[in-house]
């Protein structure tokens, strides 16, 4: 998906996060909004002067397709699943910045460990661009939801950390170019 401006009408009540504060509100059926960003699988809408984020799992509420998790072979090894996890993390975006959280340098740790019964535990340590970012918990929840949807993933732990503090030097060169830095 990419950045765009498309008018949509909410087709059913849906929870949306107020940007940048992170408070959750219910948008009632019939609410009109404009998609300002559709990156990864979440949508940023401009609604009545406010920016609101709708999760990909609720895409149908605005007439979009709900994303399908990747297919994972039953005999996948932890190191191969780790690559899939990184690919999934690259579909998570800060709703205000059109760059994924991996390219922004927000993911500090990504561990994939075997569990009993051919399942895996995924442990993520990530940060946010500013300690007071109200969207941090929402981004962490998106990471958790997407990783829990992966077949063979039995447990996901996502922790927001502030050490080391994030700064622009942690961004990939592509991210810096995309943001004009």
Structure characterization notes:
With 181 residues, the chain is of the alpha+beta class. It has 2 domains: 57 residues, SH3 type barrels (Roll); 101 residues, Fe-S cluster assembly (FSCA) (GMP Synthetase, Chain A, domain 3, 2-Layer Sandwich). It is 17% helix and 31% strand. It is built from 3 helices and 9 strands. The strands form 2 sheets. It has a 6-stranded antiparallel β-sheet, with no helix packed on it. The longest helix is centred in the last third of the chain and has 13 residues. The two termini are 23 Å apart.
Q: Which key phrases capture this entry?
A:
181 residues, alpha+beta, SH3 type barrels, GMP Synthetase, Chain A, domain 3, 2 domains, six-stranded antiparallel beta sheet
Order of helices and strands: EEEEEEHEEHEH
Query: What oligomeric state do the depicted chains represent?
Result: single chain
The CATH class assignment of the largest domain is Alpha Beta
Classify the beta-strand content into a percent band.
25-35%
- Rg calculated over all Cα atoms: 17 Å
Could you list the spans in which at least 5 consecutive residues all have pLDDT below 50? none
CATH superfamily of the largest domain: Fe-S cluster assembly (FSCA)
Alpha-carbon distance between the termini?
A: 23 Å
Helix proportion range: 10-25%
CATH topology of the largest domain: GMP Synthetase, Chain A, domain 3
In the sheet with the most strands, the strands line up as 1-4-5-6-2-3
Report the total helices.
Answer: 3
- Please outline the major beta sheet: 6 strands, antiparallel
Domains (count): 2
Q: Which structural class matches the secondary elements?
A: alpha+beta
CATH architecture descriptor text of the largest domain? 2-Layer Sandwich
């Amino acid at each position: 998906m990419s950045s765009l401006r498309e008018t949509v009408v909410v087709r059913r009540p849906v929870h949306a996060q107020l940007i940048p504060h992170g408070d959750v509100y219910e948008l009632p059926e019939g609410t009109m909004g404009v998609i300002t960003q559709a990156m990864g699988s979440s949508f940023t809408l401009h609604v009545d002067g406010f920016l609101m984020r709708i999760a990909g799992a609720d895409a149908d509420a605005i007439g979009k397709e709900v994303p399908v998790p990747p297919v994972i072979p039953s005999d996948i090894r932890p190191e191969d699943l780790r690559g899939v996890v990184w690919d999934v993390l690259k579909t998570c975006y800060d709703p205000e910045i059109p760059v994924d959280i991996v390219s922004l340098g927000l993911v500090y740790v990504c561990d994939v460990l075997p569990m009993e019964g051919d399942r895996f535990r995924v442990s993520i340590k990530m940060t946010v661009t500013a300690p007071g970012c109200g969207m941090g918990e929402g981004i962490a929840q998106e990471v958790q939801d997407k990783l829990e949807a992966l077949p063979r993933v039995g447990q996901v732990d996502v922790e927001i950390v502030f050490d080391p503090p994030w700064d622009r030097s942690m961004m990939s060169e592509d991210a810096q170019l995309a943001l004009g830095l």
